[in-house]
């Protein structure tokens, strides 16, 4: 084992304890919190969605998060930073590395479309600065601004490549920023970025929240009412439960090898239990308090029930700008909002790239420069593809369902079984308590072994039953 340790694994480590927590929280807090969460809630029962959502957080999200932190740090000591390497030492079986293939593919594929939406955020922030998004009260104007920017109209495929919009430039800038920080490495790149970006995000988001909630009270109440009006019949649909657990995984960045990779750069005596919990807590604050009260509610405040027909992207990028245009100092708040989204998205997309970098370096013995270039070429091609076919925004939603909900769900199940049955909860308890003032409660260990796989299995079978068979 020690020999493998010196052969594989980089010598990279996080700089400070708060830095790691901020990096993991940065990975977690992203477009998922501000756009995906309210979108999922609106489509799956409104206020009723919160019930399966919080059950998933307690039963799946936090327990699996602890399992990932624990296995990741363990893998790191044994000289591995990539999910395949970590899975193989955790399972004490070299073949287990194949189980980790989805843990590389999922973040890579999500990155390919996520970064394009990240670029939309940058473009929108910029458009507030130069005033081109202050289009008055005409709702249609925002739709056509978005449509021509993204090239999402009928027959518009490839618009960005024919120079019909500036999308291509914004995507390029976004790529360059991501790859500069990835190239600088875990502590100097990712950690440094997160330490500045996250406090800035909190300030921007709180400003916008105060602004939205101090709009005329009757409108605010009606808007929140539309959005959160519970439809309890949704609870009888297995898709609601699948969506809720998928959202928990996506949002916490749990279930696809991102946290395992980040945790592998911890020192042996670094705490995992409290850090994991803190990162989850920060994510929930951003998701429920900020995402749940700003993005879509604001859209509903001004547009009423009609906002519900626009889909997640329509809401975030057409309804919301209309809201900003109608509020005092909207140009300033619109800029703050989309700039905040852009920062939140970068701290997440960095965490999708790092697991793949670690794999290239560890699996193929590549140097930093080579691995970063190779990943750049692969992901840029993928994003080009996404951009070219952006005419069908529905396609993006469908894609996000299969990769961002369904596949993540499957991989989460694999991880729970590995932790509960192969690594073993006794070893898990011993390993996780090292360096921690807090222990993972024993009941959570048993939940990981029995409840999590059964819970996931039941939802999975019910979903397959209703939709595929
Ligand atoms: N958790 C991020 C968000 O909420 C998304 C993410 C997905 C991050 C996959 C890393 C890996 O936006």
Helix percent reads over 70%
Round the mean pLDDT to the nearest integer and report it: 89
CATH fold field value: Hydantoin permease
Shape: globular
Q: What letter string, H or E per element, gives the SSE order?
A: HHHHHHHHHHHHHHHHHHH
Q: Key features?
A:
globular; 19 helices; mainly alpha; Hydantoin permease
Written account of the structure:
The chain is mainly α and 469 residues long. The chain has a single domain (2-467), classed as Hydantoin permease (Orthogonal Bundle). 75% of the residues lie in helices and 0% in strands. The protein is built from 19 helices and no strands. α11 crosses α19. The chain is globular. Phenylalanine binds at residues 27-28, 30-33, 107, 110, 250-251, 253, 258, 348, 351-352.
Please write out the topology.
Layout: H1 2-7, H2 17-28, H3 31-43, H4 50-77, H5 83-90, H6 101-129, H7 139-150, H8 167-184, H9 186-213, H10 217-228, H11 238-252, H12 258-263, H13 273-291, H14 295-303, H15 311-326, H16 330-364, H17 368-388, H18 393-433, H19 442-467
Helix pairs in contact: 2-9, 2-13, 2-16, 3-11, 3-13, 3-15, 4-5, 4-11, 4-13, 4-18, 4-19, 6-8, 6-16, 6-17, 6-18, 7-15, 8-9, 8-16, 8-17, 9-16, 10-14, 11-18, 11-19, 14-15, 15-16, 16-17, 18-19
The structure holds phenylalanine.
């Amino acid at each position: 084992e020690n020999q493998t340790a010196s052969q594989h694994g980089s010598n990279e480590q996080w700089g400070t304890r708060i830095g790691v927590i901020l990096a993991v929280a940065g990975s977690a807090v992203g477009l998922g919190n501000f756009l995906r969460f309210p979108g999922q809630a609106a489509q799956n029962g409104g206020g009723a969605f919160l019930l399966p959502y919080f059950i998933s957080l307690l039963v799946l999200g936090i327990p699996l998060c602890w399992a990932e932190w624990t296995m990741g740090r363990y893998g790191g000591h044994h000289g591995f930073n990539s999910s395949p390497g970590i899975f193989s030492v955790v399972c004490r079986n070299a073949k287990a590395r194949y189980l980790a293939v989805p843990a590389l593919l999922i973040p890579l594929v999500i990155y390919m479309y996520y970064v394009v939406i990240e670029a939309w955020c940058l473009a929108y922030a910029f458009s507030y600065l130069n005033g081109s998004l202050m289009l008055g009260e005409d709702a249609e104007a925002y739709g056509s601004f978005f449509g021509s920017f993204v090239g999402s109209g009928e027959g518009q495929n490839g618009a960005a490549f024919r120079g019909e919009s500036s999308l291509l430039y914004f995507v390029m800038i976004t790529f360059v920023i991501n790859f500069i920080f990835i190239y600088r490495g875990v502590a100097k790149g990712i950690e440094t970025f997160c330490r500045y970006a996250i406090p800035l995000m909190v300030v921007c988001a709180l400003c916008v929240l105060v602004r939205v909630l101090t709009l005329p009270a009757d409108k605010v109440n009606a808007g929140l009412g539309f959005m959160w009006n519970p439809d309890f019949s949704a609870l009888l649909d297995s898709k609601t439960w699948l969506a809720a657990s998928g959202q928990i995984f996506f949002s916490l960045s749990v279930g696809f090898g991102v946290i395992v990779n980040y945790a592998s750069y911890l020192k042996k005596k670094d705490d995992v239990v409290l850090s994991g919990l803190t990162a989850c807590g920060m994510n929930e604050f951003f998701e429920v308090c900020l995402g749940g009260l700003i993005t879509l509610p604001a859209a509903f405040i001004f547009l009423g029930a009609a906002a519900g027909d626009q889909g997640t992207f329509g809401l975030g990028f057409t309804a919301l700008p209309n809201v900003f245009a109608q509020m005092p100092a909207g140009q300033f708040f619109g800029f703050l909002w989309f700039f905040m989204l852009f920062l939140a998205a970068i701290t997440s997309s960095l965490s999708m790239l790092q697991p793949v970098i670690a794999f290239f370096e560890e699996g193929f013995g590549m140097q930093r420069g080579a691995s970063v270039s190779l990943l750049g070429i692969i992901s840029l091609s993928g994003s080009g593809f996404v951009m070219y076919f952006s005419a069908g925004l529905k396609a993006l939603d469908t894609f996000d369902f299969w990769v961002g909900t369904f596949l993540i769900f499957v991989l989460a199940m694999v991880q729970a079984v590995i932790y509960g049955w192969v690594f073993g909860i006794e070893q898990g308890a011993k390993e996780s308590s090292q360096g921690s003032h807090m222990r993972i409660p024993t009941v959570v260990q048993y939940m990981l072994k029995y409840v999590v796989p059964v819970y996931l299995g039941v939802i999975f079978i019910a979903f397959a039953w209703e939709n595929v068979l």
